[in-house]
């Protein structure tokens, strides 16, 4: 970036703010490594997990990460994101464990009316719990943030899950003075969120500062979409137009990436990180509110999924 852009987006105050957030997140990651017997870092290839990888590098390099990377693959992910995931893992030389929703379907632990086309987003919870049980993970580090959705807003940084993998918002542990209770019984586990206190804008400013590479679908590109219920549904084999709907070609970008069946882009001409920062600074709709069909089924959609074991 040139000096003018540095001045506009990463002034001294915001840089100090990012330093503080980074320091907190690194402290939390090191706390997990020190206190938990068998942790894992969730990595999907999305922007938040890309930030998490950089934080892990700063926390533990030049040594190897003290945990494997884990991705729960629905089988309905955007190809660009999976390609980026594999490329980034190869660059880091770290171990990647992939839990497959398709394998859960074949085992009969996930049942869908139409496995070929139904959304597999909620089904990830089952596959995640199976992966945790298989590898006996006692902590899974994720990139969730409190500004994403109101159910996430009331979640602790160290989020306790019972022996069934369920989250009870009324049975969480206090985190006074940044002291974390990581004790769990066999079968129980923690979900740990080091960037809980970050915002979407913080994430993008950190990406700019650290010059992090991202999947290309995060930047504005031309794509066929279907206007539906205030969202722009990407035209794919999994998301075809319904009767009476029309297809448009628009310049769009993805604010968040997930299962194709429930993730929508937003209209945008932002082709650079700096342009995305400018858009993010003035947006009034959260990234999940603007892009996720699964969060529009009810106001309690996310909380219900989390109680069932979701990230």
UniProtKB/TrEMBL annotation:
<dbReference type="InterPro" id="IPR050128">
    <property type="entry name" value="Sulfate_adenylyltrnsfr_sub2"/>
</dbReference>
<dbReference type="Pfam" id="PF01507">
    <property type="entry name" value="PAPS_reduct"/>
</dbReference>
<keyword id="KW-0067">ATP-binding</keyword>
<comment type="similarity">
    <text>Belongs to the PAPS reductase family. CysD subfamily.</text>
</comment>
<keyword id="KW-0547">Nucleotide-binding</keyword>
<feature type="region of interest" description="Disordered">
    <location>
        <begin position="288"/>
        <end position="311"/>
    </location>
</feature>
<protein>
    <recommendedName>
        <fullName>Sulfate adenylyltransferase subunit 2</fullName>
        <ecNumber>2.7.7.4</ecNumber>
    </recommendedName>
</protein>
<dbReference type="InterPro" id="IPR002500">
    <property type="entry name" value="PAPS_reduct_dom"/>
</dbReference>
<keyword id="KW-0808">Transferase</keyword>
<keyword id="KW-0548">Nucleotidyltransferase</keyword>
<dbReference type="InterPro" id="IPR014729">
    <property type="entry name" value="Rossmann-like_a/b/a_fold"/>
</dbReference>
<dbReference type="InterPro" id="IPR011784">
    <property type="entry name" value="SO4_adenylTrfase_ssu"/>
</dbReference>
<feature type="compositionally biased region" description="Basic and acidic residues">
    <location>
        <begin position="289"/>
        <end position="311"/>
    </location>
</feature>
<feature type="domain" description="Phosphoadenosine phosphosulphate reductase">
    <location>
        <begin position="39"/>
        <end position="264"/>
    </location>
</feature>
<dbReference type="GO" id="GO:0016779">
    <property type="term" value="F:nucleotidyltransferase activity"/>
</dbReference>
